[in-house]
Amino acid sequence: MNEFLRQLPKVELHLHIEGSLEPELMFALAARNGIDLPYASVEEAKAAYDFEDLQGFLNLYYQGMNVLRTEQDFYDLAMDYFKRARSEGVLHIDMHFDPQAHLQRGVPLEVVMAGLLRAKDEAEASIDLTVGMIMAFLRDRPAEEALHVLEQAAPYWKFLDAIGLDSAERDNPPAKFQKLFVRAKKLGLVRVAHAGEEGPAEYITEALDLLDVQRIDHGVRCLESDEVVKRLRDHQTVLTVCPLSNVSLKVVDQLSDHPLPQLLSEGLKVTISSDDPAYFGGGLLENHIACAQAFGWEADTFRLLNQHAIEEAFVSEGRRQELF
Ligand code: ES4
Ligand code: ZN
């Protein structure tokens, strides 16, 4: 089964590139940039990745990305993950990135975009891996700041496949970002949002009604509302579910308790992704292997999940046909 899963052409719709920063690269970039880390070794960093909840993870996620300073750093970050993913049979990645987390630290948007776009271009030209760009906004920061960053990003709008909404979900409902999403829609940008990870099923409804999103990232808590499940099924709205992330952040106690099998049996358009592979115990292949073990799924289930991902990926129609 593991060899089948490695060979299976896979597509990942939910990946935070800053969450792919492995401790080894974190140490290399810290040395290159003369930055002190709060860990004595790679092992100590890995041992610290033991989270109580989403906020506990986010604290270390924002701290870890402090080593990213130059265009080359962002390029190295992305290429490191792209090469690893490609070697595990991943052919397309829709990549979230968090400009506000870098702007706040004094890293200009131009530096972030130049590094990430160079890595995307190189991956597409040389390793047969295509990359979608999702500019994500931090929901625990002011809505006005997000609007300002979207306007500041005008030179890059043409490179964006979508905008997203991430970071601390609780008490930061989708409604807070209605203006941002209306503006993005006017610009012709597709919209996606994290909803129903730690937040309630109502946040999924809000994201659909007020933000007009095309995807729900996570969405596992939809099962708390029959009405929300029905709506997601009727519209075949894709859910980008992240199994190992949900275990690491204690959305579920263990993978065998995860509602993925139920989401599928409800007829929902489910996909699987790694979210933050450096922090949650592995990339897309590891997530596939863990699901095979926990749920006893056969090849057909994994083919279906990846077919869903291919149908929904931000790719040209020509590339989509190649992926099928
Ligand atoms: C995230 Cl797991 C998760 N949830 C929300 N926002 C995020 N940003 C990076 N990982
Ligand atoms: Zn996420």
From TrEMBL:
<keyword id="KW-0862">Zinc</keyword>
<feature type="domain" description="Adenosine deaminase">
    <location>
        <begin position="9"/>
        <end position="324"/>
    </location>
</feature>
<feature type="binding site">
    <location>
        <position position="275"/>
    </location>
    <ligand>
        <name>Zn(2+)</name>
    </ligand>
</feature>
<protein>
    <recommendedName>
        <fullName>Adenine deaminase</fullName>
        <ecNumber>3.5.4.2</ecNumber>
    </recommendedName>
</protein>
<dbReference type="InterPro" id="IPR028892">
    <property type="entry name" value="ADE"/>
</dbReference>
<dbReference type="InterPro" id="IPR032466">
    <property type="entry name" value="Metal_Hydrolase"/>
</dbReference>
<comment type="similarity">
    <text>Belongs to the metallo-dependent hydrolases superfamily. Adenosine and AMP deaminases family. Adenine deaminase type 2 subfamily.</text>
</comment>
<feature type="binding site">
    <location>
        <position position="194"/>
    </location>
    <ligand>
        <name>Zn(2+)</name>
    </ligand>
</feature>
<keyword id="KW-0479">Metal-binding</keyword>
<keyword id="KW-0378">Hydrolase</keyword>
<feature type="binding site">
    <location>
        <position position="16"/>
    </location>
    <ligand>
        <name>Zn(2+)</name>
    </ligand>
</feature>
<dbReference type="InterPro" id="IPR001365">
    <property type="entry name" value="A_deaminase_dom"/>
</dbReference>
<dbReference type="GO" id="GO:0016787">
    <property type="term" value="F:hydrolase activity"/>
</dbReference>
<feature type="binding site">
    <location>
        <position position="14"/>
    </location>
    <ligand>
        <name>Zn(2+)</name>
    </ligand>
</feature>
<feature type="site" description="Important for catalytic activity">
    <location>
        <position position="218"/>
    </location>
</feature>
<feature type="active site" description="Proton donor">
    <location>
        <position position="197"/>
    </location>
</feature>
<comment type="function">
    <text>Catalyzes the hydrolytic deamination of adenine to hypoxanthine. Plays an important role in the purine salvage pathway and in nitrogen catabolism.</text>
</comment>
<dbReference type="InterPro" id="IPR006330">
    <property type="entry name" value="Ado/ade_deaminase"/>
</dbReference>
<dbReference type="Pfam" id="PF00962">
    <property type="entry name" value="A_deaminase"/>
</dbReference>
<feature type="binding site">
    <location>
        <position position="276"/>
    </location>
    <ligand>
        <name>substrate</name>
    </ligand>
</feature>
<keyword id="KW-0546">Nucleotide metabolism</keyword>
